[in-house]
Write a structure and sequence with these properties.
428 residues; mainly alpha; Rubrerythrin, domain 2; Citrate Synthase, domain 1; three-stranded antiparallel beta sheet; binds s-citryldethia Coenzyme A
């Protein structure tokens, strides 16, 4: 293949370099296009536009491939732990025993959040959405750790900010849940590993010893691994562009949490369960709801279906679907919405509307069913997605800084009014 593309505009031809990634993806480098031709490109929603070159996560939407730092998601979901995957994403390689022990120890040193954070917790209405609380509370960490505001952090300072972000997120998430119940918060127990500690703070009680079921720990590890990164999705792109202005890690992650909140993105896992519950209350008529999703005049969409990149299947959905059956069986739970979900999937995958548009279940379609089985309320599901995605956000933010990428500032095509003269208000 030629090393450049030719773009012909009028009687001029422009040579644009072709870039090929290590997995064979190809791009036309247009970084000098405007200087050469005066033209910019337009690609609303960035469906065809790469924002960066990254060595963290690779997706192949046609083949349903997802790899973190070259390791297949199927192997990591089966063999690794969430904190080991966090290390892999952030530092680039699977850790040795010593590296993992040191990493877990460092994290355990910073699991407490400043007691003054409770004043923010107390200020939220008891039924305020957990994602709004999480975004605010994570951003407020920058107030307690002003050293994180330095643009040119040393490697040690950057690492400390990363460890604090990872360790305190689990505590904050569990405190948000406890507050929603009106229960006293639980404090971290550094004898536990990261996921067990989180589950103990979430489901533990001051009034009695609660044993965290290893089945729940294993399921939580799998779910968090599957959510850990996903290349330049909406929330990760947000974290990168906010970080590109040299905003600190807490503010950048807080922005990512806000982007993830939307029902078209991370909020879909909550929307899926709400949809399944509505179908159940409506008598479980899956055909009726499939037809609503296909009806252009009906705003209803089949939540948990479709993906910007996966046009075959979402490998994470396949793993979660199997985990659903395993976990519900182990916990002895028979959840009617799981049966409705399976019927929806079965019908949709045969329906030409979905087949033609390559709409398959995505990561959010089954995850809510497991979260519910593990005891989480629906409005905590997207917060759990954020907890899982945190290592990916951190890794991508760190890569952007280490690559010294310029501040993100897209162009536009102006299509508004031209040359209007100011008119005094009494003459309008
Ligand atoms: C996540 O990017 C990532 O990597 C995200 C994520 C991650 O890990 O970070 O994977 C996590 O966000 C998963 C997606 C969760 N969202 C949902 O499940 C919400 C429901 N799905 C969609 O709204 C939609 O599929 C998107 C937003 C996920 C993708 O939208 P696109 O790529 O912009 O596609 P589109 O909206 O242009 O849809 C193409 C066609 C349209 O029909 P036509 O105009 O061609 O007739 O497919 C239709 C859409 O109407 N369509 C759906 C549908 N999704 C798309 N029709 C019914 N139900 C749906 N769910």
């Amino acid at each position: 293949m030629s090393s450049s593309a030719q773009l012909k505009i009028g009687d001029k031809t422009y040579d644009l370099p072709i870039i090929e990634g290590t997995e064979g993806e190809k791009a036309i480098d247009i970084s000098k296009l405007r200087d050469q031709s005066g033209f910019v490109t337009l690609d609303i929603g960035y469906k065809n536009t790469g924002a960066t070159q990254s060595g963290i996560t690779f997706l192949d939407g046609e083949l349903g491939v997802l790899k973190y730092r070259g390791y297949a998601i199927e192997q990591l979901a089966e063999k690794s732990t969430f904190i080991e995957v966090a290390y892999l994403l952030i530092y680039g390689d699977l850790p040795t025993t010593k590296q993992l022990t040191d990493f877990q120890y460092e994290i355990s040193r910073h699991t407490l959040v400043h007691e003054d954070m409770k004043k923010f917790f107390d200020g939220f209405p008891s039924k305020s959405h957990p994602m709004g609380q999480l975004s605010s509370l994570v951003c407020s960490l920058s107030a307690f750790y002003p050293e994180s505001l330095k643009s040119n952090q040393t490697k040690e300072e950057l690492n400390l900010s990363i460890v604090k972000m990872l360790s305190k997120m689990a505590t904050i998430v569990s405190w948000i849940y406890k507050k929603s119940l009106g229960h006293p918060v639980m404090y971290p127990q550094n004898k536990y590993d990261y996921v067990t500690n989180f589950l103990n703070m979430t489901f533990g009680q001051l009034t009695e010893d609660v044993v965290i079921d290893p089945v729940v720990v294993s399921a939580m590890n799998t779910l968090l691994i599957l959510h850990a990164d996903h290349e330049q999705n909406c929330s990760t792109s947000t974290v990168r562009i906010v970080g590109s202005s040299e905003s600190n890690i807490y503010a950048s992650v807080s922005a990512g949490i806000s982007a993830l909140w939307g029902p078209l993105h991370g909020g879909a896992n909550q929307a899926v369960i709400e949809m399944l519950e509505k179908i159940k209350e409506d008598g479980g008529d899956t055909d009726k709801w499939i037809n609503k999703a296909k009806d252009k005049n009906d705003p209803f969409r089949l939540m948990g279906f479709g993906h910007r990149v996966y046009k075959n299947f979402d490998p994470r959905a396949k793993i979660i679907k199997k985990a659903c059956d395993d976990i519900l069986e182990k916990l002895g739970i028979n959840d009617e919405v799981l049966e409705i979900a399976k019927r929806l999937e079965e019908v949709a995958l045969k329906d030409p509307y979905f087949v033609e548009r390559k709409l398959y279940p995505n990561v959010d379609f089954y995850s809510g069913i497991i979260y519910r089985a593990l005891g989480f309320p629906t409005d905590m599901f997207t917060v759990l997605f954020a907890l899982g995605r945190l290592p990916g956000w951190i890794a991508q933010w760190k890569e952007m800084k280490q690559n010294k990428e310029p501040i993100g500032r897209p162009r536009q095509i102006y299509n508004g009014a031209v040359n209007r003269e100011y008119v005094e208000i009494d003459k309008r």
